[in-house]
Amino acid sequence: MQNQTTAVWDVLASKAKAEVRQAQSRFDNARAREEQGIDRDHKVDLMLVEYSEQLNVIQAKTHSTTEAANYRQFIVQLQSIKADSSRELLMYRADRTAASKQLLLAEQERQKYEQLAERAQTKQRVALMRQETKEAEMQSMMQFNLSSRRQL
Fold this sequence. Notes:
Largest sheet: none
Shape: rod-shaped
Number of strands: 0
Radius of gyration: 36 Å
Distance between the termini: 44 Å
């Protein structure tokens, strides 16, 4: 019975370890997507600054209105991309936060089952030691009784 109990805790601990690995993988993927989102957002920011500066240079010189309008239109498109990028980044951060919470919960479950498995193994070792001690005492008692009978 004790052996079966220990095996159950070991199985649950093993299953919890697998869940931790899956949660870690989801967290790593979410973090990678967030980092990519941050990079894209930063690149869009740089492009906005660059094209705004170019528009200012064009407007400072004699320029055609179509050229300035093209720059303005492109800047508006970049601003739209920036808004999309910011929303996407918020979504990636929320995903990473959720994955982090799942990882933490999975890790807590793993620790709980490993502690329970260790406790069951300790109980089993103690019970085995008691049994061995009891058997040794019985052996000693039997030998004592046999030697007492022989002396009579």
